[in-house]
Amino acid sequence: MERGLPKAYEEIARAHARPERVYVTRPAMPSLESFQAHVAGIWERRWLTNAGRLHGELEGRLAEYLGAPHLSLFCNGTIALLAALRLLKIEGGEVVTTPFTFPATAHALTWMGLRPVFCDIDPVTLNLDPGRIEAAITPETRAILPVHVYGIPCDVDAIQGIADRRGIRVLYDAAHTFGARFRGRALAAYGDAAMLSFHATKLFSTIEGGALVVPDAARKREVDLLKNFGIVDAETVAVPGINGKMNEFQAAFGLLHLEQVDREIAARRAIAQVYRDGLGEVPGITLPSEPADLEQNYAYFPIFVDPAAFGMSRDDLHRCMLWANIEPRKYFHPLCSRYPCYRELPSARPELLPVAERAAERVLCLPVYSELPLDAVRDVCALTRELQEAAGAG
Ligand SMILES: Cc1ncc(COP(=O)(O)O)c(C=O)c1O
Q1: In order of start, what are the domains of the chain with their CATH numbers?
Q2: How open is the CA angle 9-276-332, to the nearest 5 degrees?
């Protein structure tokens, strides 16, 4: 694999090599003592899961922090997505979704016996292109499942307009949106329901975890039943629910993480600025969009490499960064539509998804997390610039 790259590139990379591996992200940890104090409380109460005290506390604080009053915690985001499909009675048919996402988006549909219909994305937002959604809708379509990729908003008005006209639901995969506010409102509060992920790799984490945001209290009550086997009381089981409960240890971690999340976002904002200053003028590199009306969360910092203008491909740039002990990730490559389980679907044909195909070939998510030293960020920028100069001239 590494054959074919000029020795000079490797030398440039080695000159910027970091002493320790720089990963694309790293979880910010609360202090061990603060977590141990919570664990001591859990031991004392002997209440480990099933809507415990810390679970209730975290749910209330998150609803307040996000400005999303009707929020239910889950053991992870994927189960929250399954519960949302059940809540909205999205059953037996097709769901229009994006191929430029994490596997869980399409897999949740498949687990519910639904067929994903992949639709191409917008070249700027990298989210579902509303201009193409209508054409993907058939009498079998039950819903639209868009993803606010990297915490960048979908065209929520256009998507809602299509759903209203066609009488179908909109369920957002809002896994990346923690803390992002769009037009003064939590990005996770749009649609008939929205899922958040609190996985360890996310900006806000409960180790594994997630939440579902719904528009009103009645639906939150339904969600709370669905995530606890449908159990109403000791002798009443009302609906075929699932086990989606968050336990007390996860909630404890979340309570502590929440205390530091504003610092996390501020540190990421500073990192994003260094990337913008350092990479803004590099030929062939496109930076992430900065939509109006969005308070960003800086969950990711994706760049897009145009091989002709940059002088080398995204994969070669990736390889050079690995030589420098820096590990960016190709989120999202390959597209979901390229997985063996989906590639035979009529909607998965690459020629129908040219924008998503190009994004998947060009994207590289650069390291961003609060403890990332700014000199590492400057190294990533310098390395990229020097490689472009060498490759562009070559
Ligand atoms: C876009 C997207 N959807 C769904 C998920 C699944 O969430 P979880 O890992 O919490 O199940 C993730 C991340 O893990 C994600 O990035």
Answers
A1: 7-27+261-328+367-393 (3.90.1150.10), 32-259 (3.40.640.10)
A2: 70
